[in-house]
Amino acid sequence: EKFEVFTKPSAAAEYRRTKGRGRKRKGVADILAEGPVIYTDIKKLKVASRAALKEAFRTEDVLEVTRVIIEKGKLKTKVYVPKPLTEMLLDGVAVFETVAAAYILLDNGRLPHFLILCVLVSLLIATTMSLCAIVGRRLSTRFLSMAPFSDPLKSDTAMRQFESQVWQLIVHTGMSALALYVYFTGDDFLNHPSRFLQLWQLNNGMREQIVALYLVQLAIWFVTLVSLRFFEVRSGDHHVMYTHHVVTIGVVLVSFAAKRYVHFGMVVFMLHDISDVPLDVMKILNLLRIEDRHGCYGAEIAYFTLMPTWIYTRIYLFPVAVIYGGVIGALYHTSPNSDVYWCDRLRNGEEIYQLGLAQEGETALRADCSFGGGGQVCFALLALLECLHIWWTYLLLRIGYRAIVEGVDTHKVSNEMYYAEGDTDARKKRK
């Protein structure tokens, strides 16, 4: 559901005056307008006395007061709205993936390495968060304390978002470098999609660099999934992010278990991490209010750096080179040129017999190229991931449109898309 968050009585009255449709809904603007102005945002409801609540809102029930302040309407500020059924479904998938990962890694003899990496990633997250809290607090209070910055990290919510975003930037930068190294020491898959699947992989071979990349990525995704589910501030796109994590882990596990699909996973890692770096920078600059003229247009420059990178990697390369050229090509394309596609190569079988891999080739043909086989599962997961890319591209373009065309404040419009006003206290209350 979508909500309008009124943080001041005047905002509620103005909304009803300018945008209300049909007959005026009873009591909302009037109650807010006539009551004492004792609330500046939803978080202060928790510390207000029952007497103050009754005086201002004619009720002592905090939830009823919350319903007065938060009304269904046009989306102005994104807030986290619990969806028990969706969360239960995602939790179930996450548990299944955890069990599957344990089985797959145990079968490959990699489970101890994975668990060690999970511990190291957790320690790195905790260390990074602690350092970010110290650095962020000093940066906010000493260098950005005066208007128009106004101590941007003074709230607990903003500080936790800053800590999380800096950690994401470190991860995405480091993993981009590792993925680029692994990519350029192998084949140029993006320009030659037929090479995603190769005959030597019939012997279940995987390059050690790719195995190392997979284990590190898998550890990071699982740790961040746990963090997203249990520890992070829940923003308006929480369920989309949760879905993205679950789908990505599914893609990683399927490709690692099948072994032949690891090149797809490697390229997916690389494209995601490269495009996430400028996004993290933009979010950090937005949190610090380093934008507009007073911030030398820092967030705006980051945005215009992000969009070409994002669109090229996630909207062009991912569907064209990976999904169409790689997966669909492997399943259905013939081989008129020097590029020989996977299923066509397996059906012809000449090279396979020459290499003495006839039995392995027949097994791969049934597993990869039949209806409901690994190739089609891979296609479905990657297509779902691309749907999420398109949704996020829409949100990013909407940010640019509202900031540039409509002239809305950059910090305000970014918060509307990504962050919620009262998530921290709502989360504490659920605990």
Summarize the structure in words.
The chain is an all-alpha fold and 431 residues long. It has helices spanning 9-19, 28-34, 50-57, 62-69, 84-107, 111-143, 156-184, 208-230, 238-258, 262-287, 298-332, 342-348, 350-354, 358-369, 374-405, 410-418, 423-430, and strands at residues 3-5, 70-72. Helix content is 69%, strand content 1%. The chain has a two-stranded antiparallel sheet. Helix 11 (298-332) runs antiparallel to helix 15 (374-405). The model is unreliable at 1-9, 20-48, 71-78 and 420-431 (pLDDT under 50).
Q: In what range is the share of β-strand residues? A: under 5%
Number of strands: 2
Approximate helicity band: 55-70%
Radius of gyration: 25 Å
Instruction: Give the strand line-up of the largest sheet.
Output: 1-2
Gap between N and C termini: 22 Å
Order of helices and strands: EHHHHEHHHHHHHHHHHHH
Largest sheet, in brief, is: 2 strands, antiparallel
SS summary, helix count:
17
Structural class: mainly alpha
List low-pLDDT spans.
1-9, 20-48, 71-78, 420-431
Shape: elongated
Mean pLDDT: 76
